[in-house]
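[Q] Does anyone have a clean C-alpha cell version of this?
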Amino acid sequence: MDLAARKYSFIQELATVDESLLEKLEKILKDNKKDWFNELSTEEQVEIEIGIKQADNNEFVNHETVMGKFAKWH
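[A] Here you go.
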C-alpha cells in the first residue's frame, strides 16, 4: 500500500476512535513536531530575539532604502 492509501485508511480509522485514543494520538503528533527555533544554537536564538525586538521598536532599515543604496550596482 502506498503512502497516500495508508493516510486515507488512517483517516478513515480516525473517524471511529473514542476520545481517549484520539487524545493519545494528538499527544503523539504534538510531541513529534519539532520547532525549528529550538534546533538553533543559543547564540542564534539570541540574535533572532534581538532582531525581533529591534523590528518591534522600528529600529530597522526598510527594503526600499536598502535597494536604493545598492541600485548603482544593478
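[Q] Thanks! Anything notable?
[A] The radius of gyration is 23 Å.
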